[in-house]
Amino acid sequence: MLSLHALPEKTIERLSQYRRVLLKISKQQNKDNIFSHEIASILHITSVQVRRDLMLIGYSGSQRKGYQIKMLIQLISSIIDAKNGQRIALVGVGNLGSAIIPYLNSKKKSKLQIIASFDINPDKINRKISGVNCYHLDELPSIIKKENITIGIITAPDDAAWSIAEMLISAGIKGILNFTSTSLRILNKNVFVEEYDMITLLEKVAYFANK
Amino acid sequence: MLSLHALPEKTIERLSQYRRVLLKISKQQNKDNIFSHEIASILHITSVQVRRDLMLIGYSGSQRKGYQIKMLIQLISSIIDAKNGQRIALVGVGNLGSAIIPYLNSKKKSKLQIIASFDINPDKINRKISGVNCYHLDELPSIIKKENITIGIITAPDDAAWSIAEMLISAGIKGILNFTSTSLRILNKNVFVEEYDMITLLEKVAYFANK
DNA sequence: CCCTGTGAAACAGTTCACAGCG
DNA sequence: CGCTGTGAACTGTTTCACAGGG
Q1: Are A154 and A164 in contact (CB under 8 A)?
Q2: Do B174 and A96 touch (CB under 8 A)?
Q3: According to CATH, what is the number of the domain A86-200?
Q4: Residues 182-201 of A with CB under 7 A from strand D
Q5: What is the pTM (predicted TM-score) of this model?
Q6: pLDDT in tens, A58-106
């Protein structure tokens, strides 16, 4: 499993993509091996990039046949799939939150699973979406611990983001995907936060769309 | 508005955030000026970062009072708000798509507006969400042109992403926000594409959550 | 040949360290 | 002093260029 402390962030993102590509190919085609330039062209990146990433995880291919698909899937999985599993809590069951639950859980897009959701609106509480129950926010600490949840998704209003993040962190969560426009950086060095704010990104697209 | 060809991507993202912070402050407080370290601490970044970004857009503050809030909002707006407006089309009115329309359009989070949506499912067509009509995908080229839309959001199934992107681009769109797991990079150098794939990012969070 | 693997260069983005000013 | 503005150093990431192998 080569514990390899801390691969670059961008490499991790691509490993996740490589695995999806490889899984698709291994289902659809009868193919045992693949070249770096084949993976690269599907993802529209360079083959050097692919080889560099695979070098970083210590995988070697053969010059004649490229990389073994099955082995590579296993190696990537051993690196990016946490042994404890990837159990997720979603906080804020509004428009976005209630769309994300079925989006992530329905299709087996990955091993990531939303286990519980939280809100403060009585209309939402004790309702299920795609089998995921919505609890009152007050129950967050106990449910997080009981269900052994390690990742949080915040889809609440901007104003609530900070206090929700603090609740998640003191409940023991280790990673957060933050959909709000409220920056959560440097909240706690032991918790990984990914900012995922649609408005900021759309404004960036708008800027570059105009050259 | 100082055409400054191509500010760094990260700077644009932060300018969008600075503007939101400044707008909030100018509404809530009676404050004319602000120091770089004040903006920085709200966003949890460094004050050097703020000053560096403002330097890049050619704005100078005063040592005594910092930056003028009103002027700075105007300057940032003149840079990131396109003159043609930011009219958006959304393709794929599934779970995610139908959540994003009200999320973006309801609150006046920014000047970005979704003008039209598209799908191929007859159940969706000619239905309105938050006042936005859903058209059949076949109508995309004509509506994009008629409505002068310059930005596309793709929330369709992965398999459809590539052909939708091609449709959008040949219809004249200049920027795309891509929610699918299908990479659209290097599709066309004149079109800016931002990849916004939740699964990849969540897997990254899961990896770093585990140290 | 056409592959992989990889030092070294290039590029992008952030932070350091400090000059200069009111 | 405490602030802004900025060259220079540094860190992260991608690309170049090529050695080496079947």
Answers
A1: yes
A2: no
A3: 3.40.50.720
A4: none
A5: 0.92
A6: 999 998 999 999 999 999 999 998 776 689 999 999 999 999 999 998 7
